């Protein structure tokens, strides 16, 4: 799966939550990735972040990094 | 089984609450005030002879056959036009009435051919019946006088004939066209003896404004308007009530049969979605079911360049199982998946997702709703708590303001559109938000109060601006918001939409619609009484599709237009069972009933029932499957009843994904575009060949009933079972009703659904459970399903698909009345008469700039690809916008669309593509190449015949 | 008889637009069209329908219902014979038959030389002088076949 496409999609998601306070926006973006992205897509974007993560919006980058810390700890929060 | 004969009460039902009691032929009958004597009599089982009356249209009083006598009144009034009055004493049969009726019938018959024995309506002719009913024994006038016997027959319509020689000029057809369908295509030409029924300006039906809905044929009491199939076959001998397999309206039909042959499909009066009306697709376009192109034997091949080889079911299913198992063994459990069909039944869809979750052991299941209404599911669940529309279709009768956004119901949901148009003719106000001037904007007797022709891709800006007016002009329904919505969420949202950047003035910059028009429309929506929103794919198929759905929900909540009849948020669903496919857990992230796969309790429920362990992670969506195929991690796909090559965006990308897979299994009626890239073909069954249920756009679960054996030997659900069994996990169902029982057992909103109830009630709308044993016509009454209504902030983010010097026009795509989706069904019927090819609508200004004429071949090119088709010059589209349909594989309009998609659901942005249009000589290189491959790919190798004996 | 204009779409559109705001605009609009062109050109029907937001079938229904609306251009002279009850009872049938015989055309038809169009009319309000007719807008009472012949001779020579 091309990193450009994943980055584009992740940024689109982050953009919807961008109006929220950062902590909430990061959590909601991460939650969306956990709930709707197949694990291999999450793995791919994490790999891309490891390789620099260029092009990801700052809040999205933070959201992706929370996936890395512990996928399960992301609370199932509603937006 | 016998022929279902519905009672014709002669005049429509009265909805008055007060009643009157009338005595008819000695029997007291109590009916609502305003009921005709004719109807009251029929309620008591007394049939007054009649010709010009039928209960689908208002009384007319022209045939003078339904005369009655009323005690204390002079004369013999017509029972159809005389309302029953309290205490009235009526006689329907007296010496005087008998004589009058015979005299009237004599006149009719003196100008009607007496070829009853060879007439196609023989056995189903009201004129014949009435001649019998009045005891007609002679016609004193003979038949030698002036008559219409030589009037020419009009056979121009592909499905029915019009034979004026047999016409009694009762006007039932004219009235049905006006009152039921709302097209006004028929009239009475001339007057007196010369008067006759005419289509348009006395043109052939096909050339007239007629949309071939069949309402006139339905209303005709004689053989004047009759189905060609009846002329060819004869009268049916039994009928079965079933549900149409086109579009999300979900009309009930009687399949009228002779043996296993369909004679005709007749709209069923008790159908709660359609109330006896139909459109050209459901009524007439069923010929594909026995089209010669149907594939009836399973086929396999090693490579997609090989010809197909017909094999046994065992071998084909065995091949699927062995390939899928091999792929999983080498590439991992998650390397295969399936696409469920929104054209198949709930039960079949449920089984496919069960196959994926329980047998494949992953969650790689998705459905075509991905590319149509997935944003509806997500958007409405986050705001209201339910992934579905809030109303039933009848609700439109109580609407005072109708807001239609991104939907073209007269083409895509015609039977509902007729209902809506009827309400508009009664005086409801109409706002249309659409880049095109659709028929709802202006057509006979319909005129939108406001048409907001926005630039494609600016829905969110428009809806925010409407909300801005509501909030800043004090039009919020404060009580509703306070009682039923989340107060904090509302406050945040109100502050957001009130910002200057969301004002109509700011929005007009993006949308191209004057601020004053936006303001006026908002005021009408907020203050005009019951306001109902209807929307379609013009809302969802955008990069901000989900945001738009949320913005719609916000607007409805802020004005309190939720939770009663006449209001609501109503997604008009595209395919017949797209609502059901979503309900049944077709999406990769959720189990049936919209419950997330990560929910341990829900998962546990299914694990226990199915006896398997379920993967807790969401699977791949269709576009992700194609991406994953290209990087090698997804190699096997089972596609039931979908044609993603033609229907999904960016065809080249779809094809590349399919070509990268090791085993593609297509289950369909025909070799479709996707099967060009398949290794196994499993012949599917039509809706006539199986039992099951479809769920329409109103959440209505309707029964689909088998009227013939599956032509390929197996119903679709049986094929899925065979695959499961071959993969070593047998599932045991002997009938689809048992599958529904399992769905009900595992899904709270379906817990009260079973076939016995559906047979008894006709249909139910989910949620159907202990709290609502007969279903739920209107949702969120008094309280939202999620608790408090949730306002969400919907910032407008312009799409990245932008026009520029290379691609200066915006392409938006859609549908047309006579064709359905990828056209696999409708192209194989007489409907091709109306729409034999996809055309590019272009404004005269843009056409002139490019030197194009109506009918010129043009090259339509975007960043993704190019195709050629012919131009249709029209001011239905604004300058700068072009429009086409995607019904024909020769055009492959989706080679042009981009792979931009909705942020939340990946629903593709079909509605906005930057394009250039230029004159062309014919098909593009890609089209030629594609057609060649398509032709090559559809070869079927038949074993050489044995040499003939000398 | 007035000289009629030849049908042209722009002129038709102007006439339609001039009446579109009126209440019950269909009949005034159709009359104005007939006044200008001498008949209701078939091409005008969809334009009227579109202006009134009705179907062309409905407009056709109106045009074909009223005998006064012509669907083809008239001849140089128009003879309308009353076919209503009073005139019938006073020998109108015979006069009608005579006119048809003499002109060798049917109702609503024009002689091959383009001179005379024969039309039925249902009551000219001249029952006291029945049978009655109208020739080029002028009423004629107490018609008989001799008088009819003279009238027709006169207009032909005029």
Describe this entry's structure for a reader.
The complex is a heterotrimer of chains A (79), B (950) and C (158). Helices cover 70% and strands 0% of the residues of chain A. With 79 residues, chain A is mainly α. Chain A has one domain. Chain A is globular, with a radius of gyration of 11 Å. The C terminus of chain A is likely disordered. Chain B has four domains: 115 residues, Ubiquitin-like (UB roll) (Roll); 246 residues, Rossmann fold; 198 residues, Dimethylsulfoxide Reductase, domain 2 (3-Layer(aba) Sandwich), CATH 3.40.228; 129 residues, Barwin-like endoglucanases (Beta Barrel). Chain B is globular, with a radius of gyration of 29 Å. In chain C, 47% of the residues lie in helices and 13% in strands. Chain C is an alpha+beta fold and 158 residues long. The longest helix of chain C has 19 residues. Chains in contact: A-B, B-C. At the A-B interface, α1, α2 and α3 of A face α22 of B.
Task: Label this structure with key terms.
heterotrimer, A: 79 residues, mainly alpha, 4 helices, 70% helix, globular, C: 158 residues, alpha+beta, Glutaredoxin, five-stranded mixed β-sheet, 5 strands, elongated
- Number of E strands of chain C: 5
The largest sheet of chain C, given as strand count, sense and whether it forms a barrel, is: 5 strands, mixed
Say what oligomer this is: heterotrimer
- Per the principal axes of the C-alpha atoms, what is the gross shape of chain A? globular
Number of helices of chain C: 6
Question: What structural class is derived from the secondary structure elements of chain A?
Answer: mainly alpha
Mean pLDDT of chain C: 93
| Protein chain pair with the most extensive contact, residues per chain | A-B, 23 and 32 residues
């Amino acid at each position: 799966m091309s990193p450009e496409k994943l980055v584009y999609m992740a940024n689109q998601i982050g953009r919807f939550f961008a109006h929220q306070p950062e902590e909430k926006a990061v959590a909601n973006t991460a939650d969306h990735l956990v709930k709707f992205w197949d694990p291999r897509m999450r793995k791919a974007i994490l790999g891309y972040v490891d390789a620099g993560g260029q092009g990801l919006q700052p809040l999205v980058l933070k959201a992706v990094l929370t996936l890395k810390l512990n996928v399960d700890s992301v609370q199932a929060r509603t937006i | 089984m016998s022929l279902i004969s519905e009672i014709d009460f002669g005049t429509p039902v009265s909805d008055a609450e007060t009643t009157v009691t009338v005595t008819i032929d000695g029997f007291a009958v109590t009916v609502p005030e305003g009921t005709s004597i004719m109807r009251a009599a029929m309620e008591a089982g007394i049939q007054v002879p009649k010709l010009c009356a039928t209960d689908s249209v208002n009384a007319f009083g022209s045939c003078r056959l339904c005369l009655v006598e009323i005690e204390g009144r002079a004369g013999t009034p017509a029972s159809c036009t005389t309302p029953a009055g309290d205490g009235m004493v009526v006689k329907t049969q007296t010496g005087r009435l008998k004589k009058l009726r015979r005299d009237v019938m004599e006149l009719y018959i003196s100008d009607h051919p007496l070829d009853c024995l060879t007439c196609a309506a023989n056995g189903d002719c009201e004129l014949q019946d009435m001649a019998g009913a009045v005891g007609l024994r002679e016609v004193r006038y003979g038949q030698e006088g002036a008559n219409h016997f030589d009037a020419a027959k009009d056979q121009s319509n592909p499905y029915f004939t019009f034979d004026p020689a047999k016409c009694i000029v009762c006007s039932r057809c004219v009235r049905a066209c006006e009152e039921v369908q709302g097209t006004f295509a028929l009239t009475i030409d001339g007057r007196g003896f010369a008067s006759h029924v005419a289509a348009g300006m006395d043109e052939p039906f096909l050339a007239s404004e007629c949309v071939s809905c069949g309402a006139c044929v339905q209303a005709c009491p004689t053989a004047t308007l009759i189905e060609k199939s009846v002329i060819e076959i004869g009268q049916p001998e039994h009928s079965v009530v079933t549900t149409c397999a086109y579009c999300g309206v979900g009309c009930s039909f009687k399949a009228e049969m002779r043996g296993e042959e369909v004679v005709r499909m007749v709209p069923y009066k008790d159908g709660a979605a359609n109330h006896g009306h139909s459109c050209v697709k459901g009524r007439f376009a069923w010929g594909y079911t026995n089209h010669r192109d149907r594939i009836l034997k399973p086929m396999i091949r090693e490579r997609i360049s090989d010809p197909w080889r017909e094999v046994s079911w065992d071998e084909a299913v065995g091949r699927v199982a062995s390939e899928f198992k091999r792929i999983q063994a080498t590439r991992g459990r998650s390397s295969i998946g399936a696409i469920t069909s929104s054209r198949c039944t709930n039960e079949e869809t449920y089984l496919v997702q069960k196959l994926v979750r329980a047998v494949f052991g992953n969650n790689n299941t998705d459905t075509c709703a991905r590319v149509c209404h997935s944003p509806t599911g997500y958007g409405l669940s986050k705001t209201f708590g339910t992934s579905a529309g809030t109303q039933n279709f009848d609700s439109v009768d109580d609407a005072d303001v109708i807001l239609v956004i991104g939907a073209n119901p007269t083409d895509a949901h015609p039977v509902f559109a007729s209902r809506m148009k009827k309400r508009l003719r009664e005086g409801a106000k109409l706002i249309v938000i659409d880049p095109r001037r659709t028929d709802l904007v202006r057509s006979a007797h319909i005129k939108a109060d406001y048409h907001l022709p926005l630039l494609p891709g600016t829905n969110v800006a428009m809806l925010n601006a409407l909300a801005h007016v509501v909030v800043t002009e004090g039009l919020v329904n404060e009580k509703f918001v306070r009682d039923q919505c989340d107060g904090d969420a509302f406050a945040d949202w109100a502050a957001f939409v009130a910002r200057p950047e969301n004002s109509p003035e700011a929005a007009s910059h993006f949308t191209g619609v004057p601020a004053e028009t936006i303001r006026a429309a908002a005021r009408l929506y907020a203050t005009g009484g019951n306001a109902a929103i209807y929307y379609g794919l013009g809302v969802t198929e955008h990069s901000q599709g989900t945001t738009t759905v949320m913005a719609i929900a916000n607007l409805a909540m802020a004005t309190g237009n939720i939770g009663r009849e006449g209001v609501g948020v109503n997604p008009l669903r595209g395919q017949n069972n797209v609502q059901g496919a979503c309900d049944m857990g077709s999406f990769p992230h959720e189990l049936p009933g919209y419950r997330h796969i990560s929910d341990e309790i829900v998962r546990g429920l299914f694990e226990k029932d199915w006896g398997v362990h379920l993967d807790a992670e969401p699977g791949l969506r269709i576009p992700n499957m194609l991406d994953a195929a290209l990087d090698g991690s997804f190699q096997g796909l089972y596609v039931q009843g979908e044609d993603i090559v033609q229907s999904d965006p960016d065809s080249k990308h779809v094809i590349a994904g399919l070509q990268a897979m090791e085993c593609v299994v297509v289950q369909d009626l025909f070799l479709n575009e996707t099967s060009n890239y398949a290794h196994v073909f499993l012949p599917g069954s039509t809706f006539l060949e199986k039992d099951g249920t479809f769920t329409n756009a109103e959440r209505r679960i309707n029964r689909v009933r088998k009227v013939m054996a599956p032509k390929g030997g197996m119903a679709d659900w049986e094929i899925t079972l065979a695959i499961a069994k071959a993969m070593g996990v047998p599932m045991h169902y002997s009938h689809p009703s048992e599958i529904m029982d399992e769905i009900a057992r595992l899904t709270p909103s379906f817990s009260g659904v079973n076939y016995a109830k559906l047979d008894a009630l006709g249909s139910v709308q989910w949620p159907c459970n202990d709290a609502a044993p007969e279903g739920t016509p209107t949702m969120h009454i008094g309280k939202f399903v999620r608790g408090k209504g949730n306002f969400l902030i919907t910032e407008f983010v312009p799409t990245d698909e932008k026009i520029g010097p290379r691609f200066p026009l915006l392409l938006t795509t859609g549908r047309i009345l006579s064709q359905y989706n990828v056209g696999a069904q409708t192209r194989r019927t007489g409907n091709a008469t109306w729409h034999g090819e996809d055309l590019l609508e272009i404004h005269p200004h843009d056409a002139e700039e490019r030197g194009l004429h109506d009918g010129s071949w043009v090259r339509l090119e975007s960043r993704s690809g190019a195709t050629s088709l012919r131009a249709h010059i029209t001011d239905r589209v604004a300058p700068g916008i072009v429009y086409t349909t995607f019904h024909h594989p020769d055009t492959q309009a989706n080679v042009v669309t981009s792979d931009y998609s909705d942020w939340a659901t990946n629903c593709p942005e079909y509605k906005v593509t930057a394009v250039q249009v230029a004159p062309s000589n014919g098909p593009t290189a890609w089209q030629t190449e594609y057609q060649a491959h398509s032709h090559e790919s559809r070869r079927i190798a038949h074993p050489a015949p044995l040499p003939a004996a000398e | 008889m007035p000289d009629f204009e030849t049908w042209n779409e722009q002129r038709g559109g102007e006439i339609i637009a001039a009446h579109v705001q009126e209440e019950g605009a269909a009949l005034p609009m159709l009359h104005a069209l007939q006044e200008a062109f001498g008949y209701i050109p078939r091409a005008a029907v969809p334009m009227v329908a579109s202006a009134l937001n009705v179907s062309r079938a409905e407009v056709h229904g109106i045009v074909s219902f009223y005998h006064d609306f012509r669907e083809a251009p008239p001849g140089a002279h128009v003879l309308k014979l009353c076919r209503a009850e009073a005139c019938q009872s006073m020998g109108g049938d015979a006069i009608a038959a005579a006119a048809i015989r003499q002109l060798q055309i049917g109702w609503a038809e024009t002689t091959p030389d383009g001179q005379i169009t024969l039309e039925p009319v249902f009551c000219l309000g001249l029952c006291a002088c029945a049978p009655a007719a109208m020739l080029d807008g002028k009423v004629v009472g107490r018609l008989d076949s001799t008088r009819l012949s003279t009238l027709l001779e006169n207009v032909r020579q005029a």
